[in-house]
């Protein structure tokens, strides 16, 4: 059975417009090798709780623009299958792919934002 590879960006920086402070988002694990049918869980931890519930998750496949999957920490874009889900608030967020399929390999990114951006 072929292994599917999911690559994960280690961290993303963004600027909090209220305090002009830099917040670091750290994703774990860095990369995963999974098989079809597996469940994948990716965590994103922020250095500040000012992210609140303003977390998005993106999928990027080679040669393509990033595709928004989840926003507001847990709201799935309407065209995205329910195998993809998100949860969390404050500083700790989770993104899950249930029942991994052959089309799922790619880079997955978390992005924090706030209501003032």
What this model shows, in words?
This protein is mostly beta strands and 117 residues long. It has a single domain (4-112), classed as Sandwich (Immunoglobulin-like). The protein has strands at 4-8, 11-16, 21-28, 31-34, 40-46, 55-60, 67-71, 75-76, 84-89, 92-97, 106-112. The chain has a six-stranded mixed β-sheet with strand order 4-1-11-6-7-8, with no helix packed on it. Strands 2-3-5-10-9 form a five-stranded antiparallel β-sheet, with no helix packed on it. Mean pLDDT is 82; it is low at 8-17. Keywords: Signal. This is Ig-like domain-containing protein. It holds the Pfam family V-set.
Provide tags for this entry.
single chain; 5-stranded antiparallel beta sheet; mainly beta; 53% strand; 117 residues; 6-stranded mixed beta sheet
Estimate the helix proportion, in percent: under 10%
> Strand order across the biggest sheet?
4-1-11-6-7-8
Q: Proportion of β residues? A: over 45%
Distance between the termini: 45 Å
In CATH's first tier, which class applies? Mainly Beta
Main beta-sheet strand count, sense and barrel state: 6 strands, mixed
Question: What's the tally of helices?
Answer: 0
Provide the residue-averaged pLDDT.
82
Shape: globular
Which segments are poorly predicted (pLDDT under 50) over 5 or more consecutive residues? 8-17
Domain Ig-like: 21-117
Signal peptide: 1-17
InterPro entries: Ig-like_dom (IPR007110), Ig-like_dom_sf (IPR036179), Ig-like_fold (IPR013783), Ig_sub (IPR003599), Ig_V-set (IPR013106), IgV_Light_Chain (IPR050150)
Keywords: Signal
């Amino acid at each position: 059975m072929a292994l599917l590879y999911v690559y994960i960006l280690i961290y993303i920086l963004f600027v909090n417009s209220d305090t002009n402070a830099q917040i670091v988002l750290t994703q774990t694990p860095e990369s995963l090798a999974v098989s079809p049918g597996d469940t994948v869980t990716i965590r994103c931890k922020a250095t500040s709780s000012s992210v609140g519930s303003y977390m998005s998750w993106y999928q990027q496949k080679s040669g393509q623009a990033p595709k928004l999957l989840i926003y507001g920490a847990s709201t799935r874009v309407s065209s995205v299958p329910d195998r993809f889900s998100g949860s969390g608030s404050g500083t700790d967020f989770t993104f899950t792919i249930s029942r991994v399929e052959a089309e799922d390999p790619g880079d997955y990114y978390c992005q924090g934002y706030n209501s003032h951006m």
